[in-house]
Amino acid sequence: TQFDALTETLVSDEVLSLLALQRYDRLILQVGKGAEPKVPASAPLKVEWYRVKKSLEEDMKAAALIISHAGAGSILEGLGLGKLMIVVVNDRLMHNHQQEVANELASRQHLLSTTPSGFAAKLRSLGEAPPALEPWPAPDTTAFPRFLATELGLPA
């Protein structure tokens, strides 16, 4: 994975200051194959980063706010934890299915969606009026067994 525009946005003076104003004290970044973040020496909060981890679950569970790229797997993992989530779409991609997924979930009020250039404004809006987002529904673990039983002519 690589999304340098997102990483650069997150370590900008403006975004770090906004995060600190909203009482966040730490930012943890996964940068994948991207460039090493250039964190300002005067950053008003602690910034940590790593390339990859086997699972982001521990970091996501500990987070008050999840900021994610718009990959479906990352989105679903974050939504399943019931956390406030801002999804940042890579608007430089062609045939951008990520934009479609993020826009649809934002229109259903499960998350907030933006692009790197709109991120600071989206973050600023959180400080003005935190959104009332719809919780992601819990998975129905009985749906597939019921479907299979019906298809096989068995009692459901």
UniProtKB/TrEMBL annotation:
One of its GO terms (molecular function) is N-acetylglucosaminyldiphosphodolichol N-acetylglucosaminyltransferase activity. InterPro entries: Alg13-like, Glyco_trans_28_C. GO terms for biological process: dolichol-linked oligosaccharide biosynthetic process. GO terms for cellular component: endoplasmic reticulum. Its main location: endoplasmic reticulum. It is found in: Endoplasmic reticulum. Residues 3-129 form the Glycosyl transferase family 28 C-terminal domain. Keywords: Endoplasmic reticulum, Glycosyltransferase, Transferase. Its EC number is 2.4.1.141. Belongs to the glycosyltransferase 28 family. PANTHER family: GLYCOSYL TRANSFERASE-RELATED, N-ACETYLGLUCOSAMINYLDIPHOSPHODOLICHOL N-ACETYLGLUCOSAMINYLTRANSFERASE. This is UDP-N-acetylglucosamine transferase subunit ALG13. It comes from Haptolina brevifila.
